[in-house]
């Protein structure tokens, strides 16, 4: 099993990931990171770890890791 | 599919939110890492937003004078033919100030790779008109829109280069996942062409400049799809092996 990790401090709130996510699993809650941007969050129930968010992100926010059992 | 940012992108980049440079930095790093040449590559970096790259990119880089990255890269490659040498340039640098260096590297078929980021203005200096600025596009130096009767047509450099004796020429964009994956493939082909000593490889990438276009990032990508891509057609213009076989 794989899991999407979000490095929220890198996020600049461009929303490319939200626009490109085929499952609508990403959203912005409104919480703000240290740089002052409302960062992206993921709904793990909807996420299929396809990796499109990783590909379209200019700021290296996403990582797909092996889920710890 | 496990995904992790490449080791070369070791800290957060310093570009504006939604800037395409971040994606292109990552694609270059991924390709160099996948080919196993990331520690023995040398970049010649342009002036402009491209010059923010070496601070956050763990590959050996030389900061070239404005516009001269292709000439610097050609010099490095001639001295150290064992290294993989690339330039990373914007449109103001490669096509305005450094047009001669870029074109003559292509004419001499230097065995280097040019990564050319086209965001249709001078980004770092505040969004002035560049040779690639579209007709009627508003910039700080063309506040009523670019008048091509006065300034000439937008410069499509690939049209000028494709009839020369070069190894590989392609144009990609960053508007969606499919285009980003294609662009990565083009970059990989370009570096492979260099490794096989096939000659000059040139990748143009259509990228958004959200700050100077005064658009939000999603609208900037739509602008590229709708208005920029029809002027600068995507695809491969010189296939590997087509001319130097």
Question: Quick summary of this structure?
Answer:
The complex is a heterodimer of chains A (69) and B (245). Chain A has 69 residues and is an alpha+beta fold.
Describe the structure.
Chain A is of the alpha+beta class. Chain A contains two helices and four strands; from the N terminus they run E-H-E-E-H-E. Chain A has one domain (2-66): Alpha-Beta Plaits (2-Layer Sandwich), CATH 3.30.70. Chain A is globular. Chain B has a single domain, classed as 3-Layer(aba) Sandwich (Rossmann fold). Chain B is built from nine helices and seven strands. Chain B has helices at 21-34, 69-79, 91-97, 99-107, 148-151, 157-161, 177-195, 210-213, 217-228; strands spanning 41-45, 60-63, 84-90, 113-118, 168-173, 201-206, 235-238. Chain B is globular, with a radius of gyration of 17 Å.
Q: Which percent bin holds the helix content of chain A?
A: 10-25%
Contiguous helical run count of chain B: 9
Percent of residues in β-strands of chain B: 15-25%
Share in helix of chain B: 25-40%
Which two chains touch over the largest interface?
A: A-B, 27 and 27 residues
Mean pLDDT of chain A: 94
Name the features.
heterodimer, A: 69 residues, alpha+beta, two-stranded antiparallel sheet, two-stranded antiparallel ribbon, 2 helices, globular, B: 245 residues, alpha/beta, Rossmann fold, 7-stranded mixed beta sheet, 7 strands
